[in-house]
Specification:
33 helices; Rossmann fold; alpha/beta; 25 strands; EC 2.4.1.1; Pyridoxal_P_attach_site; 48% helix; binds ligand T68; 830 residues
């Protein structure tokens, strides 16, 4: 029975899932104290909030443990098909509340802490969110694994345990300064390291051929390696007793690394070598849409996918499971191109290690992968120089060449010697340097390729990869993104959740289309009043958060107009800013009576990639405009610009439920989907947006009366480019735009220094890749409609309720069903 045998005997519930140690208040208290004493080594009286948070989290964890162990076992025993989600990013957000909710322990735990004299809010505040992602792509992965667990679909999420996640953003004189995100500083109660399941991952060296009983084979002779240590995290389904696994890899030096490979008899060199190895999982690259092509980044990618593939093959596939049937056991979903090096890795395993024929191996590989594309920006399509790839992974480069050779042979067979087409479709690009096009490799290897919203998938087929679409009929498909309603409605907006439940009963959280039932309530004045009260309560919560966190005061009675997302020119934070400056300029020039301006607070949240100079300048400008506008008495407090620093999942959960207006204003044809747009709509904000990404589908569902559409549609954008876009002409012909731009250029927001924001202004005037100026007039007009609509409180609330009622489609549970039906074919199991 081990050292805890006696304890288990006196507490027979200790290992059972449902009647576990924490399944009632008494049991929770006991287990909590036990964890405090035995895991933290402190008595309650001497414990710090961090001790208490740990013991509390461990108690929740203990409750889920038996189910987790059981589900891991069943996944192996039943050999039912699993989804292996390969993603370099998981933007999880805080875990405590989510795990409490999933296990149904919230009330018990709250009461238990009260009995211990502990404020559960203080414990919540202890948790540092794991920010292991940049933005939408990483958050999507986190939503998907939540939905898979909730739907009882076997899944392992594989990724990287970055020691430092997305940087912590601070503002110094309005400018972004990045600080390391030391999320592990105090440890994490949610992770389980398993060094005994470490994988050795090799790099470098050369390839050679050898004679294998009369057959000539290739093999890789690498020159260095690292150890990949898995850390497991629970992914509990919502109240269904299911616990899936997220497995993140951490890099450690191997003995051979410092002793053999870097052997110089030099102790200091050996230690340096160790640091080199451990660098691989040290930090998340903060570039969101523009990959930098750095060597360490390729090391990260290969490191985690190689470890994941070997982990799955070694531990999850039964020995007698024929490799030729591997696709009946697993689908590896490639979250963007970041894990695509998994394709040649699986080929290498099958051909070099398992000694399968090339064609047989290729047939298996083509069934085991599927690829999701998340972008339309050409500069975001990842390529690796042949020089680098060949140096780091020489055997993989050979395999990629062979895949390409055979693919181009087929293309030639189908289309003849069309050299232009062959050059365009080659996995190897020649310009500006010879390089591997990872999106092409993924497309050739994947059973399916999907975009993330209808418009995106259509543009992917027609504009980005048209030759491939023609060559592989039926390979391209769409799965519109979604968000988990557990985190982004139930946890983020408990008041709205209660109101919904009072109208519809329970069950809607796992069947979000039921929100349709709210449509009739939109006509009910009492319901509308209650809905408004929820929004008001959420604003009070936000106000408290922003006061404590940033020292901001949120004014009563303001419309909250929110734009939160990564800072990128294509997302057009500048357009939002031009609107603000336009309203402000109207007031200070005396043309507009401040008293006639609808009170609005504009809230921004955005991190800029540290190397993205223009994005950082725009952040500086937003802060500069905020300082001036907020301090100007002529505005009479009717406009406010707030830019809380370090926007993250935790802040999003407070901002979104309080928002009245959601800004989704990217240039049409640039935002693949967006997922923030869905979160706002489902929390009863109205959207002002372009016909881009999933906005298109949101508008179709909520109806034109409940959505503020503006700007060019994608074909118009194309047409304007084709005609020759001259932004300065828009400046010349639009007086309002000219005034706003001139005010910025005048130095009004930079203490009279005209040089500070000159690059922003001239970029808009003479380049404006994302057509801010072309859409300005339409945006201003739409904002006037927003003002008018907001003046009619009842009509606004009706629209807000209809947004909630009609957006059930955007549950990530539905996204998962679509993936399952169209791509994975993995039914729920055990
Ligand atoms: C986003 N992409 C899309 N990329 O921009 C967004 N990129 O429209 C979409 O809704 C979302 O994916 C989910 O599909 C990203 O977030 C990245 O974060 C990223 C990270 C590294 C390299 C490239």
């Amino acid at each position: 029975t081990g050292p805890n045998g006696a304890l288990e005997a006196t507490h027979p519930l200790a290992l059972a899932p449902v009647t576990g140690p924490a399944s009632n208040v008494d049991g929770f208290v006991r287990q909590f104290l036990r964890n405090l004493n035995y895991e933290r080594g402190v008595p309650l009286s001497a414990s710090s909030p961090n001790d208490q948070y740990f013991a509390f989290a461990m108690t929740v964890r203990d409750y889920l443990m038996a189910r987790w162990l059981e589900d891991l076992r069943r996944q192996r025993v039943t050999q039912s098909k699993s989804v292996c989600y390969l993603s370099a990013e998981y933007l999880l957000g805080r875990q405590l509340d989510n795990n409490l909710l999933a296990s149904g322990l919230t009330d018990i735990a709250t009461e238990a802490m009260a009995q211990c004299g502990i404020d559960i809010e203080e414990l919540r505040a202890q948790e540092v969110e794991p920010g292991l992602g940049n933005g939408g792509l990483g958050r999507l992965a986190a939503c998907f694994i939540d939905s898979l667990a909730t739907m009882s679909v076997p899944n392992i999420g594989y990724g990287i345990r970055y020691e430092y996640g997305i940087f912590r953003q601070t503002f110094v004189d309005g400018q972004q300064v990045e600080q390391p995100d030391a999320w592990l500083e105090l440890g994490s109660p949610w992770e389980f390291p398993h060094p005994e399941f470490a994988q050795t991952i090799s790099f470098g060296g050369h390839t050679e051929t050898y004679d294998d009983e009369g057959v000539t084979r290739s093999r890789w002779v690498p020159s260095w390696n690292v150890r990949a240590v898995p850390y497991n995290y629970m992914v509990p389904g919502y109240l269904n007793g299911r616990v899936n696994t997220l497995r993140l890899w951490s890099a450690q030096a191997t003995n051979s690394f410092d002793l053999r490979v870097f052997n110089s008899g030099d102790y200091e060199e050996a230690v340096r070598a160790q640091t080199y190895a451990e660098n691989i999982s040290k930090v998340l690259y903060p570039e969101d849409s523009t990959p930098q092509g750095k060597e360490l980044r390729l090391q990260q990618q290969y490191f985690f996918v190689a470890a994941s593939i070997h982990d799955f093959l070694d531990h999850m596939v039964a020995d007698d499971f024929g490799l030729e049937n591997l696709a009946d056991r697993v689908i590896f979903q490639l979250n963007d191109t970041h894990p695509v090096i998994a394709v040649p890795e699986l080929m290498r395993v099958l051909v070099d290690e398992k000694k399968l024929e090339w064609d047989a191996a290729w047939a298996i590989t083509q069934k085991c992968f599927a690829y999701t594309c998340h972008t339309l920006l050409p500069e975001a399509l990842e390529v690796w120089s042949v020089e680098l790839l060949g140096r780091l992974l020489p055997r993989h480069l050979e395999i990629i060449y062979r895949i390409n050779e055979e693919f181009l042979l087929e293309v030639r067979e189908r289309f003849g010697d069309d050299e232009i087409r062959l050059r365009d479709m080659s996995i190897i690009g020649e310009f500006p340097e010879r390089s591997v096009r990872m999106a092409y490799l993924a497309t050739v290897a994947g059973a399916k390729v999907n975009g993330v919203a209808e418009l995106h998938s259509q543009l992917l087929r027609d504009k980005v990869l048209p030759d491939f679409n023609e060559f592989f009929p039926g390979k391209f498909t769409n799965v519109t993104n979604g968000i988990t309603p557990r985190r982004f409605i139930r946890l983020a907006n408990p008041e709205l959740s209660e109101l919904i439940t009072s109208a519809l009963g329970t069950g809607w959280l796992t069947d979000l289309e039921r929100l349709r039932g709210l449509e009739s309530y939109a006509e009910d004045p009492d319901f509308r009043a209650a809905f408004r009260e929820v929004k008001a309560a959420n604003k009070r919560v936000l106000s408290d958060v922003l006061r404590a966190r940033d020292g901001f005061e949120v004014s009563d009675g303001h419309m909250l107009d929110v734009m939160v997302k990564r800072l990128h020119e294509y997302k057009r934070q500048m357009l939002k800013l031009l609107h603000i400056v336009t309203v402000y300029e109207g007031i200070v020039s005396g043309r507009v009576d401040a008293a006639s301006v609808q009170p609005r607070t504009f809230i921004f949240g955005a991190k800029a990639a540290p190397g993205y100079a223009m994005a950082k300048r725009i952040i500086h400008l937003i802060n500069a405009v905020g300082s001036v506008v907020n301090a100007d008495e002529r505005v009479q407090g009717r406009l406010k610009v707030l830019f809380p620093q370090n926007y993250n999942v935790t802040l999003a959960e407070r901002l979104i439920p309080a928002a009245d207006l959601s800004e989704q204003i990217s240039l049409a044809g640039k935002e693949a989907s967006g997922t923030g747009n869905m979160k706002f709509a489902l929390n009863g904000a109205l959207t002002i947006g372009t016909d881009d990404g999933a906005n298109v589908e949101i508008r179709q569902l909520v109806g034109d009366d409940n959505f503020f559409l503006f700007g060019m549609a994608e074909p118009e954008v194309e047409a304007l480019w084709a005609r020759g876009y001259k932004p300065a002409e828009f400046y010349q012909h639009d007086e309002s735009l000219r005034r706003a731009m001139d005010l910025i250029a005048s130095g009004a927001f930079s203490g009279g220094d005209r040089s500070v924001f000159e690059p922003v202004v001239s970029n808009l005037l003479y380049d404006d890749r994302f057509m801010v100026l072309a859409d300005y007039a339409s945006y201003i007009e739409a904002q006037a409609k927003v003002d008018a609509a907001h003046a009619d409180e009842d009509a606004w609330t009706r629209s807000a309720i209809l947004n909630v009622a009609r957006c059930g489609f955007f549950s990530s549970d539905r996204s998962m069903r679509d993936y399952i039906d169209r791509i994975w074919h993995t039914p729920p199991a055990f």
